[in-house]
Amino acid sequence: MTQETKAVTILVPGKLMDHAAERIGDEFNMVRIPRADPSLITEELAANVRGIAAFGGVNAAMIDALPRLEIIASFGVGYDSVDAPHAGARGVMVTNTPDVLTEEVADTAIGLLINTVRELPRAEAYLREGRWAAEGPYPLTKATLRGRRAGIFGMGRIGTAIARRLEAFGLTVAYHNRRRVEGLTYDYHSTLASLALAVDTLICVAPGGKATEKAVDAAVLSALGPDGIFINVGRGSTVDEAALAAALADGTILAAGLDVFADEPRVPQALLDAPNATLLPHVASASVHTRNAMADLVVDNLLSWFSDGKPLTPVPETAHVKYRK
Ligand code: NAP
Ligand code: 8YV
Fold this sequence. Notes:
Oligomer: single chain
Bound molecules: NADP nicotinamide-adenine-dinucleotide phosphate, 2-keto-D-gluconic acid
């Protein structure tokens, strides 16, 4: 703890992991409010807050309500709920938590893929319901991983970690990004539709936000085809959920595995009702080990900014923001 940072007021709107809150309380003058709502900003907060540690969204109005704000340290690698372009225009630095969760999220993506393809959660429910003893073996699964062609939508840090695992499982890998990744030998597709046509297993790990909104739509699902498996560990906003529910119901695709939804924690009834959907409550990074590492990176970004004058993991939209020293 330094005298310098102890005088700095950090606002924590809404919930934040205890591990992060304890460290922020030790190192800074931490103030908590129930949510990131500009109507909760008193004159005193407006005069003093220089940093935000955010688990959830921070919009333009919230940024504008804090004239002395210098940095928003966001919890999570995806920061679509933070208005980073507005922060950048206001000279406010935004940081996220890349890398420390990459392998965990990739592990979960593979687990979700296998659960979806081989119906393991349904097979376990069958056993627990006493049906194995009463009715005999669980039916053979229609799908297998064997011979599958995987396509990754969002071949970044996590996409690459998923691709490595898929290769080890014997699947072929192709991908779609806005730009080809130099040095990567997987087949590149300049459109999502072309990728979906070329593969039977589409894994979305692209960021949310306007640029990807409902990118996985009826046409993409139809291109994936009747043997198609769709996995989403990116953001729910990237999928047209009504089109997905319809595609699962009418056999346009075979099955889906989803960790993320457009309006969390609300999950559309049509997806809850779909027996061929495997659903998780946004848990891809949710181990104590990895969430603690993410929490540490949130606090370390604040400490680095206020002690050394620079962020550790700035997001591209605020890369131009002048460092403090
Ligand atoms: P990353 O390294 O920045 O990778 C993102 C990839 O998506 C990049 O390769 C990027 O390539 C591509 N991309 C971005 N915008 C695109 C667009 N409009 N169209 C096509 N491709 C696009 O990020 P990461 O660390 O791998 O994380 C990826 C995302 O995973 C996060 O943003 C977050 O939403 C999600 N996530 C979810 C969980 C969870 O709990 N389920 C956990 C962690 C992360 P180009 O720039 O060339 O397009
Ligand atoms: C977290 C995530 O669950 O890092 C991300 O982008 O989606 C997850 O790791 C989320 O950030 C918690 O708010």
